[in-house]
């Protein structure tokens, strides 16, 4: 199908995608944000007639991962374009939206919040521990390359591939990628913790191998967090204990 | 540190607070970014980097999934950095690491109010939804778009309020307790610098969904530790 939306309009939709959660609320979550993002394109598609019915369709519930919203919104635009031409579509706009929002949210949460963000953070923390001010730059670069790629190409591919975007995204094996990122994070966290403990023992002129004793302490803390103790309370308790022991000693 | 510095801190608090949820979510709100950024604007990037290092891992495992609102580590970092730099100006000769640690310890519990303000902003946004539905009845599409953008103001106010509480209450606590707490913190600073990230690591290990996470972590920890010891 010939695509009609000018690049300028798609660009406006893309920029507006960054405000998807500006009016996030407990009732319709990103609903107003999705409306805001799609509005310039819907107005353009129905510029000769009444854009009301099309706009009205998108003032409802919308909730997915903010970065994964781009392919969803791109496909919704393509479907709206077909509907505007009076063509048949295999799935309606609302059906498509309802079908993909939850799985895309789960994939995005696992990949971006649970995978890439901790991985980028740990890499940056190595630099921060060395006192390097490149730490924030490295974090932003590692995190935002995949993030912006998904936002930009997600919208374009969603619009171009239409319903086939689901298959296009499936090919990336995002859940597997998220697991690899998490595994990498755990490994790097081990190295980072060892480095911090080693530095501390050296500064305190204590035998380095004592550091291995901190491994069970980390496991104990992890167990307490799993039992429901908040990490904030835990850090305050541990800090108070450390201050007390050092003050006595 | 004068009012101008706190105003600068408040500007960073608003911009980074918006980045958390509303716009544009490029993660300048993460402690490892916003800490050095605040520090740089207030004339001491190292203090901000130190606070960022302490706070980054603590709540990293708390994901902003669905309606869940994680603790506001952004405002804790901005507030703690502003407090540490402010205190440093008043207490010349105090250890910069101890100042960052103490400011973070004070700011952390106050950050809890960030969750309340964030929830308030999201509840307030429901009024925008009502306003949009009224505009829909009148086919006033521009009004709906304006309603959406008004949400930015709500999130900005929530961030500013959190920063205000952290800096206001934090300053009061620090002015009265710093003479007692600062020497204690300075004495145990090297250990406390490890405590924050290690508790954060433990929290991540407790929540990360990876098979044999503890085995992977232990293997990596021991190998890295032995390597550092041997070299």
Write structural notes for this entry.
The complex is a heterodimer of chains A (249) and B (231). By secondary structure, chain A is mostly helical. Helix content of chain A is 72%, strand content 0%. Chain A has two domains: 7-178, no CATH class; 208-249, no CATH class. Chain A is elongated, with a radius of gyration of 24 Å. The longest helix of chain B has 47 residues, at 141-187. The model of chain B has no long low-confidence stretch (mean pLDDT 95). Chain B has nine helices and no strands. The termini of chain B are far apart. The relative contact order of chain B is 0.14.
Structural class of the helices, strands and pairings of chain A?
A: mainly alpha
Structural class category of chain B? mainly alpha
> What is the residue-mean pLDDT of chain A, rounded to a whole number?
95
* Number of beta-strand segments of chain A: 0
Biggest interface, which chains?
Answer: A-B, 94 and 96 residues
Q: Describe the sheet with the most strands of chain A.
A: none
C-alpha Rg of chain B (nearest Å): 20 Å
Described by strand count, sense and barrel closure, the largest sheet of chain B is: none
Fraction of helical residues of chain B? over 70%
* Strand residue percentage of chain B: under 5%
What are the key terms here?
A: 249 residues; mainly alpha; 2 domains; B: 231 residues; 9 helices
Quick structural gist:
The complex is a heterodimer of chains A (249) and B (231). Chain A has 249 residues and is mostly helical. The termini of chain A are far apart.
Draw up the topology in text:
The complex is a heterodimer of chains A (249) and B (231).
Chain A: H1 7-17, H2 31-45, H3 52-57, H4 69-84, H5 93-129, H6 135-161, H7 165-170, H8 174-203, H9 214-226, H10 231-248
Helix pairs in contact in A: 1-2, 2-4, 4-5, 4-6, 5-6, 5-8
Chain B: H1 3-21, H2 31-41, H3 45-55, H4 73-90, H5 96-110, H6 112-137, H7 141-187, H8 189-207, H9 213-230
Helix pairs in contact in B: 1-2, 1-4, 1-7, 2-3, 2-4, 3-4, 3-5, 4-5, 4-7, 5-7, 6-7
């Amino acid at each position: 199908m010939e695509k009609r939306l000018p690049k300028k309009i798609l660009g406006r939709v893309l920029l507006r995608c960054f405000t998807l959660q500006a009016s996030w609320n407990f009732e319709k979550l990103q609903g107003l944000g999705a409306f805001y993002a799609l509005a310039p394109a819907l107005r353009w598609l129905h510029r000769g007639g009444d854009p009301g019915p099309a706009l009205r369709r998108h003032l409802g519930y919308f909730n997915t991962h903010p970065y994964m919203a781009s392919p969803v919104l791109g496909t919704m635009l393509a479907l709206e374009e077909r509907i505007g031409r009076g063509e048949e579509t295999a799935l309606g706009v609302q059906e498509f939206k309802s079908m993909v929002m939850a799985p895309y949210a789960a994939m995005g949460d696992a990949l971006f919040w649970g995978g890439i963000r901790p991985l980028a953070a740990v890499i940056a923390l190595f630099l921060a521990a060395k006192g390097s001010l490149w730490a924030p730059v490295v974090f932003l670069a590692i995190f935002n390359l995949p993030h912006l790629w998904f936002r930009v190409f997600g919208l374009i591919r969603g619009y171009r591939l239409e319903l086939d975007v689901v298959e296009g995204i499936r090919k990336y094996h995002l859940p597997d990628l998220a697991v690899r990122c998490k595994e990498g994070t755990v490994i790097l966290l081990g190295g980072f913790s060892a480095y911090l403990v080693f530095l501390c023992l050296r500064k305190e002129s204590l035998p380095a191998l004592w550091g291995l004793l901190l491994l069970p302490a980390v496991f104990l803390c992890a167990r307490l967090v799993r039992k429901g103790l908040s990490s904030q309370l835990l850090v305050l308790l541990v800090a108070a204990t450390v201050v007390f022991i050092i003050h006595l000693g | 540190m004068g009012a101008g510095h706190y105003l600068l801190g408040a500007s960073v608090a608003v911009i980074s607070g918006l980045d958390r949820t509303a716009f544009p979510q490029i993660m300048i709100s993460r402690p490892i970014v916003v800490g050095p950024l605040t520090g740089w604007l207030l004339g001491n990037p190292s203090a901000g980097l130190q606070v960022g290092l302490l706070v980054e891992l603590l709540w990293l495992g708390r994901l902003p999934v669905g309606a869940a609102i994680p603790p506001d580590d952004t405002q804790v970092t901005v507030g703690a950095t502003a407090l540490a730099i402010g205190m440093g100006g008043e207490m010349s000769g105090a250890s910069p690491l101890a100042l960052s640690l103490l400011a973070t310890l004070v700011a952390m519990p106050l950050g809890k109010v960030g969750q309340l303000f964030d929830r308030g902003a999201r509840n307030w946004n429901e009024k925008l939804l009502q306003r949009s539905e009224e505009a829909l009845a009148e086919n006033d599409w521009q009004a709906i778009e304006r309603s959406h953008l008004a949400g930015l103001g709500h999130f900005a106010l929530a961030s500013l309020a959190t920063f205000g509480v952290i800096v206001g209450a934090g300053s009061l606590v620090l002015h009265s307790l710093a003479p007692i707490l600062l020497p204690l913190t300075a004495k145990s600073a090297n250990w406390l610098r490890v405590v924050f990230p290690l508790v954060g690591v433990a929290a991540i290990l407790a929540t990360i969904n990876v098979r044999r996470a503890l085995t992977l972590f232990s293997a990596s920890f021991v190998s890295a530790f032995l390597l550092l010891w041997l070299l």
